[in-house]
């Protein structure tokens, strides 16, 4: 399986050398990128092909990797954000308290990695879903997705998929998400492009609840602690 990953990784390097760039609208989920779409996922072709290889390998070990979320457009992320903002506002949270409550798990619209077609949220399709499936406790101890997590811990990186928000107390930013994986050969160069965006300028264009509190200081903190508060292997080529 390591040979498979090396082939995919080499292909991604050549892909990057073609200097294919995403536009600002594509980076923030406002304009669709050419992707492979089916009933389960919407991903960039290379990420989709690698996922299918990983899924087949897992099935041989009786693990059924099921994607519950992949590409997510700006408007979808904005609905999630505004819904949470309005709920927190009704509970009496101040605007800045509201923002920091939401970014425990959810990104500001336009900054979600799910805008890129490289990200997947996954569960074990062999288990009948009950309630909220994306809860950390379901991946540990006696949770229903422990077997899935162990398989991914041992195998996902061979196919280019890396856990994004690791279970590391020293890591800052979004809370641990044992279900969220990123296709590194593409998401690393895409993130490089994304970091060049002027986020203040981006946020000023769209009606996002709480955006008046997105000061330069807040954006710098958000970038450093949240957008960059990820698995070190997903930013190894940034320096």
Element layout with pairings:
Layout: H1 2-17, H2 24-27, E1 36-37, E2 42-43, H3 45-60, E3 65-69, H4 74-90, H5 95-102, E4 119-124, H6 146-155, E5 161-163, E6 180-183, H7 184-195, H8 199-204, H9 216-227
Helix pairs in contact: 4-5
Can you walk through the features of this model?
With 239 residues, this protein is of the alpha+beta class. A four-stranded antiparallel beta sheet has the order 3-4-6-5. The chain has helices spanning 2-17, 24-27, 45-60, 74-90, 95-102, 146-155, 184-195, 199-204, 216-227, and strands spanning 36-37, 42-43, 65-69, 119-124, 161-163, 180-183. It is built from nine helices and six strands. The longest helix is centred in the middle third of the chain and has 17 residues, at 74-90. It has a single domain, classed as 2-Layer Sandwich (Muramoyl-pentapeptide Carboxypeptidase, domain 2).
TL;DR?
The chain is built from 9 helices and 6 strands.
Keywords:
alpha+beta, Muramoyl-pentapeptide Carboxypeptidase, domain 2, single chain, four-stranded antiparallel beta sheet, 239 residues, 6 strands
